[in-house]
Design brief:
The chain has about 90 residues and is an alpha+beta fold. It has two helices and five strands, in the order E-H-E-E-H-E-E.
Amino acid sequence: MGSKMKWSEIRQQYPDKFVLLSDIVEEKLSETKFKIIEGHVLKATDNGKEIRKLYQDYKKKGVNVLYSLPSTPVDFIVENVPFKGIIK
């Protein structure tokens, strides 16, 4: 697929699809929240299982990827929730 696209363009081009993105550009909104501005579309599909498998495959290779759901709005906000570790 092509070069980087704005998230709003990706949403328009692939409505109601799962979209796997790499080379993500994000805007920091707070310590834990980021807005996805643009990215490189690796795959767009109706198949959620396929997207999750591809996501895991890329992650194993160390590629920073993210996927959207068909319901992901034009304002694509991601929240990084830190894992709560057990303190001994």
